[in-house]
Amino acid sequence: MIELQTFVLAGKAEFTLTSRYSGKHYTFQVNKAKENPRYPGKTWFVNYMVSYDEYKYLGILKGDAIILNLTAKSHAGEESPVFKIFTAFWKLARNGAYDWEGTPHGDQQMIRFQHVGRCCVCARPLTNPMSIDMGIGPECLSKIGGE
Q: 93-109 pLDDT, tens per residue?
């Protein structure tokens, strides 16, 4: 079993974070940068979903500290919900506050982590927390007569 931090930094991670306070969820992609002089060392690009299959750039995880840095091309600022939930999750994940299933330990229950699964009908990525739990997207569920 790999650590959650290792999963996120594996190269092409896609996952959903849900605020246990607001119930809002946000889907992220974390992609490792290809080796080139512009991005020496360890660098990952963080993107967030704005609509199905459309992502916008949030920032980079860089260096040994591996903290999220906003850049001139970031589409969200430090006060945005996507920045706040990602940085809060990342701090907790790096400190070992989650087990592999994304279950927070102790009092760290403010953010739920879920990998982005695929629909059992159409194989499209699932990003809604309820859909991930059920393994089927809302459109396919309605097509097969589910509720």
A: 887 766 545 555 554 56
Q: What angle do CA 119, 120, 121 make, to 5 degrees?
A: 90
**Cα 89 from Cα 8, distance rounded (Å):** 11
Say if residue 11 is in the same domain as residue 37: yes
Q: What tens digit of pLDDT does each residue of 33-63 get?
A: 888 787 777 899 999 999 988 999 999 998 7
Q: Are residues 49 and 74 in the same domain?
A: yes
Domain residues for the domain of 87 are: 4-116
Please tell me the pTM assigned to this model. 0.80
